[in-house]
Design brief:
By secondary structure, the chain is mostly helical. 76% of the residues lie in helices and 1% in strands. It has a single domain (2-369), classed as Farnesyl Diphosphate Synthase (Orthogonal Bundle). It contains 16 helices and two strands. This is Polyprenyl synthetase family protein.
Length: 373
């Protein structure tokens, strides 16, 4: 735990250091651009840093480096770990970019208990008394902020890869990062597609299509890709990377299934988003697909009619929550989470990953899938 906390501190510091180097570039263009830096810092200051942790433990799993910046050889170990710290920080910036864009796509007003990026820009527009529509300005500015963060994540990764002692390993890490970026983007498209195309798809395919969204939009980039990027950077061979992939994918699926439950039943004080937010956004999740399977025609029609209405009242949210609970879908999701975690942990047995790292990965598996409502 102490080592993970120390890593998070180093990632925070690396992000802050990187933003400091970008500030003069941005402000030299115009002081009007200062909000881009301020909002970037705001969105990069919080979060649980799961992706950074998985990247680091993927790197550690290869056994080529000691604990980051600690012990009698802290200077040497710190220098050796610099590339993975940059890679972990780059993943966090990439995640922030994805969240900014995701909130725009979902018309979500909040993130981590505060205003989402496009809402911050909307507020700035209103306070400043500018011309035009504040919503249009907020959306356009938010898209650009997400683009800026996306580019910065690439720049920070390149800085880390340039410092890596093994050029071939750095190249493999870059390939994995590029694959992750493509898969997240197409996964996001599949997400918005399912919200609209479900009506024309065979009922028997809705579960598999919802699961496909989970795999490519979230599971791979939340767990599997960070693990593999870190391990590739450390010089892992194909067998080692395959073991991490076999662990990371089912755990990533379990992680997102838990997130889907939180999106419907989560306490706003815990999740940082209004309870039932996914219902207002019309998310066609695995939870919804499973609920529809066990509903009467009338209940299914009511669910479909209300899902995706941004003006749902608290009463209607409560009714939908009860409908989903009564369908048995929550119990089935919990069973799927347990099954996927078990599959992930089984993949570590007999793998080339050391016992010490296996212990850390097991602890992380518990942390990311047992989040409370």
């Amino acid at each position: 735990m102490a080592q993970s906390n120390h890593l998070i501190e180093l990632v925070h510091s690396r992000i802050d250091e990187f933003l400091e180097t970008r500030q003069p570039i941005v402000t030299s263009v115009s002081p009007d651009l200062t909000p881009l830096l301020e909002f970037s810092r705001q969105f990069l200051s919080g979060g649980k840093r799961f992706r950074a942790l998985f990247c680091y433990w993927g790197w550690q799993s290869v056994g080529t480096g000691g604990p980051v910046g600690s012990g009698p050889d802290s200077a040497r170990s710190g220098a050796a770990s610099a590339p993975v710290i940059s890679a972990a920080a780059a993943l966090e910036i990439f995640h922030a970019a994805a969240l900014v864009h995701d909130d725009i796509i979902d018309n979500s007003d909040t993130r981590r208990g505060a205003a989402s990026a496009h809402k911050l820009f909307e507020g700035m527009h209103v306070r400043s008394g500018w011309a035009g529509n504040q919503v249009e300005f907020g959306r356009a500015a938010g898209i650009l902020l997400g683009d800026l963060l996306l580019g910065w994540s690439d720049e920070l990764l390149d800085e880390g890869l340039a410092a890596a002692p093994d050029a071939a390993a750095a190249a493999r890490a870059r390939i994995e990062f590029n694959r992750m970026r493509t898969e997240v983007t197409v996964g996001q498209y599949l997400d918005i597609l399912e919200e609209r195309a479900w009506l024309t798809q065979p009922e028997t395919e809705l579960f598999d299509r919802a699961l496909r969204v989970i795999v490519f939009k979230s599971a791979k980039y939340s767990v599997q890709a960070p693990l593999v990027i870190g391990a590739a950077l450390a010089g892992a061979d194909a067998e080692h990377l395959d073991a991490l992939r076999a662990f990371g994918l089912p755990l990533g699926i379990a992680f997102q299934l838990r997130d889907d439950l939180l999106g419907v039943f989560g306490d706003a004080s815990v999740t940082g988003k209004p309870s039932g937010d996914d219902l207002r956004e019309g998310k066609r999740t695995v939870l919804v697909a499973l609920a529809r399977e066990n509903l009467t025609d009338t209940a299914r029609t009511n669910l479909d009619g209300l899902l995706g209405d941004p003006l749902l009242t608290e009463t209607q949210i409560g009714m939908l929550q009860r409908t989903i609970l009564d369908s048995g879908a929550v119990e089935r999701i919990e069973a799927l989470i347990l099954a996927n975690v078990a599959e992930a942990l089984a993949a570590l047995e007999g793998s080339p990953i050391s016992g010490a790292v296996t212990t850390r990965l097991t602890e992380l598996a518990e942390t990311v899938t047992r989040r409370a409502f």
